[in-house]
């Protein structure tokens, strides 16, 4: 386990053209940002729980949009499951994302969005998804939990509810899936209360911080990773 590997500047105006080769026999997904992909050994890894942290409006939603496009372009039979309460990736928003990346909007039929407003609802929805995926032949699904802070408002992070949620998420990742969790939280609030159940579940934690001098540039810190990151 390595904590704080390096800082990487991402400029969302110059994201690379995504290579459209298949990921069916690969274990990671390119993000479209060469510096980050290089640092992570090729991109974000399947069978991982990945947490994107940072205050609001620091580039996490746009980063996920690029990642969604990368996943769809790399996968012959994509399956995307999105859970949240804000609608950042609701069907209309997804339609716009696909058009921006010149992806046929027919793929919307393979993207499922579920509204959840509590940890209990999220756990139940993920449990149902786990049963569905365990009985199917699909591999390497992309599962996104958007704006966890709005779902987990006032939650006790050392409660049995959080323990149950982390067990469900870990079991989903073991089914060859990639779990992306958008967590609008400042670095100062990543407190010891997360250590009991939440932190041990996270395989990769990226922290996003907008740079004032660049309108669309973001500093990304690798705060935690289970696999070797490249330092040069």
Structure description:
With 232 residues, the protein is an alpha/beta fold. It has a single domain (29-225), classed as Rossmann fold (3-Layer(aba) Sandwich), CATH 3.40.50.300. The protein has seven helices and eleven strands. It has helices at residues 34-39, 60-74, 91-100, 119-134, 148-151, 160-173, 198-201, and strands at residues 2-3, 7-11, 28-29, 44-45, 49-54, 80-84, 111-115, 142-145, 178-184, 204-210, 217-225. Strands 1, 2, 5, 6, 7, 8, 9, 10 and 11 form a nine-stranded mixed β-sheet that branches. Strands 3-4 form a two-stranded antiparallel ribbon. Strand 10 (204-210) and strand 11 (217-225) form a beta hairpin. The longest helix is centred in the middle third of the chain and has 16 residues, at 119-134.
Number of discrete domains? 1
Sum up the overall morphology in one term: globular
Q: What's the tally of helices?
A: 7
Please bin the fraction of helical residues: 25-40%
Task: Please tally the β strands and state the result.
Answer: 11
In CATH terms, the superfamily is: P-loop containing nucleotide triphosphate hydrolases
Rg over C-alpha atoms, rounded to the nearest angstrom: 17 Å
Order of helices and strands: EEEHEEHEHEHEHHEHEE
Q: Tell me about the largest β-sheet.
A: 9 strands, mixed
CATH class: Alpha Beta
The first-to-last residue Cα distance is 19 Å
What is the average per-residue confidence, as pLDDT, rounded to a whole number? 84
| Helix-strand makeup class | alpha/beta
CATH topology call: Rossmann fold
Question: Uncertain runs with pLDDT below 50, 5 residues or more?
Answer: 20-25
CATH architecture descriptor name: 3-Layer(aba) Sandwich
Which strand-content bin applies to the residues? 15-25%
């Amino acid at each position: 386990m390595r904590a704080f590997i390096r800082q990487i500047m991402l400029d969302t105006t110059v994201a690379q053209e995504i290579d459209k080769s298949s990921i069916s026999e690969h274990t990671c997904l390119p993000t479209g940002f060469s510096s980050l992909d290089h640092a992570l050994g090729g991109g974000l890894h399947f069978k991982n729980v990945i947490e994107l942290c940072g205050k609001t409006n620091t580039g996490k939603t746009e980063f996920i949009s690029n990642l969604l496009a990368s996943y769809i372009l790399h996968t012959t039979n994509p399956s995307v499951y999105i859970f949240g309460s804000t609608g950042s990736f609701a069907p209309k928003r997804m339609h716009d994302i696909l058009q921006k990346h010149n992806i046929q909007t027919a793929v919307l039929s393979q993207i499922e969005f579920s509204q959840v407003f509590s940890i209990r609802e999220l756990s139940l929805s993920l449990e149902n998804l786990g049963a569905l995926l365990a009985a199917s032949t699909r591999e390497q699904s992309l599962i996104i939990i958007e704006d966890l802070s709005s779902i987990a408002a006032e939650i006790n992070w050392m409660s049995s509810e959080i323990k149950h949620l982390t067990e469900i998420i870990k079991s989903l990742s073991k089914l060859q899936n990639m779990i992306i969790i958008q967590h609008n939280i400042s670095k100062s609030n990543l407190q010891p209360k997360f250590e009991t159940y939440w932190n041990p579940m996270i395989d990769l934690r990226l922290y996003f911080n907008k740079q004032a001098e660049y309108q669309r540039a973001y500093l990304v810190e690798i705060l935690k990773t289970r696999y070797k990151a490249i330092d040069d």
